[in-house]
Amino acid sequence: MPLLHSPAAHGFDPHRLTRIDQLANRYLDAGHFAGLVTLVARHGHLVHLGCHGYADAASQRPMAPDTICRIFSMTKPITGAALMICLEEGRCHVTDPVSTYIPAFADLKVWQDGALVPLDRPVTIQDLYRHTAGLTYGGLFGDHPVDQMYSEANIGDPSRSNAEFLNDIAQMPLRYQPGSRWHYSMAMDVLGGLIEILTDQPFAQFLQERILGPLGMVDASFRLDPAKAPRLATLYKVTPTDGYTPLDTIGVDYGPEARFEGGGGGLLSTPLDYLRFAQCLLNGGVLDGQRILGRKSVEFMASNALTPAQMPVGFDNAEPFDGFGYGVCVKVMQDPAAGGWFGSVGDFGWGGYAETYHIIDPKEQLVAIMMAQCIPSMHYPIRKQFRAAVYQALT
Q1: 173 cis-preceded (ω within 30 degrees of 0)
Q2: Does residue 373 lie within any of the structural domains?
Q3: Which residues are registered as beta bridge partners of 100?
Q4: Is 288 helix (H, G, I), strand (E, B) or coil?
Q5: Most CB within 10 Å of its CB: which of 102, 202, 256, 278?
Q6: Is position 1 within any domain?
Q7: Of the candidates 159, 184, 200, which is a domain's last residue?
């Protein structure tokens, strides 16, 4: 187990901090989740670690700090950091048309009332990282005709390579004109393929050499190492009425036959692994003497890149994230009171489809992480409640 430091020495009320455990236990007692891990670090020191319930309910294998989880969309901030490395090195610029590097994107059309119309302007790299490209996610987050086209074409098929994915998605129409509004999409998966082109190496290799390896994220990968399989959490499907039931996704998405390295949601990781990445960003791009990004690059990444006309940030089938803007693959707090989210102006992070979530708060110098393994996320308000439980404990 990792060393825990005194909460009081780092500005937390120890008694009030136990409300995080109380929150987790309420969800477990209600049968909503099989298990989850919560952790909080401040000033670079771990002050709270809660391992609640089971990584596998059938065998009663407990959740642990090194339980391997499907982090799904918490892959996105790592992809954002990879893009920032490319920007630092002059491999591209944010206003570059994506078609400069992926020629198939020059022929995109926009769905408009059943017709396909030309682009008002090209899709740019900035559009990809801030979700204003007009791309979508398929039936996962909406039932628009373009979403149906994605589903029918099986966009993001794990058996296809990143290059094949880029060709597939370029055949789909856009839901919106580029730059017109924020819309959650597979844009970060496109970024993963773009980074392969910019760096002339597989996306997984670039991440390993430039981010995961230097930061000591020893369990973060696109494929499950068979030797680590005993530490993998079971994935559950959860409904408000029926609780959770186990799912099997390993062979399809994370086994040796899978080829897709999705920048939008393909990584496995652990709570402790992800803490190292989050702490690195909080430190301004450096951890334990290993610098992956410059300080100003992290500030750029965590700055709102949306105009008022492009907001709000949110999903078709869930409440909007009022009070948040969006930076480079992360949402950025603009006004905590606007949406009822505890936090600080400038805190940033994202969540994942299996109810993984993290907060990086430069003002309070804290990182908070929650990892469950139940899909879909946001059936319950646990993300708001987790934020409240963390922030109310500050003294």
Answers
A1: no
A2: yes
A3: none
A4: coil
A5: 278
A6: no
A7: 200
Residue 383's nearest CA partner among 303, 304, 321 is 321
Q: Does one domain contain both 136 and 241?
A: no
Question: What CATH number is attached to the domain comprising 135?
Answer: 1.20.58
Domain assignment present for 2: no
Cis peptide, bond prior to residue 320, ω within 30 of zero = no
Confidence band for 142, pLDDT divided at 50, 70 and 90 = confident
Question: Would you give the DSSP letter of residue 5?
Answer: P
Measured between alpha carbons, how far is 341 from 348 in angstroms, rounded to an integer? 12
For residue 155, the enclosing domain spans 83-200
Whether pTM exceeds 0.85: yes
User: Is residue 228 domain-shared with residue 369, that is, in the same domain?
Assistant: yes
Residue 308, classified by CB atoms within 10 Å of its CB into exposed (0-12), middle (13-18) or buried (19+), is exposed
Do 276 and 368 lie in one domain? The reply is yes
My answer on whether 234 and 370 are in the same domain is yes
Which residues does 352 contact at the CB level (< 8 Å), separation at least 6?
70, 71, 72, 73, 74, 75, 265, 377
The answer to whether residues 343 and 237 belong to one domain is yes
CA distances from 107 to 186, 309, 388 (A): 18, 26, 46
The number of distinct structural domains making up the chain is 2
CA distance linking residue 361 with residue 98, whole number of Å = 31
pLDDT at res. 147: 95
Q: What is the pLDDT of residues 186-228, one digit of tens each?
A: 999 999 999 999 999 999 999 999 999 999 999 999 999 999 9
pLDDT in tens, 55-97: 999 999 999 999 999 999 999 999 999 999 999 999 999 999 9
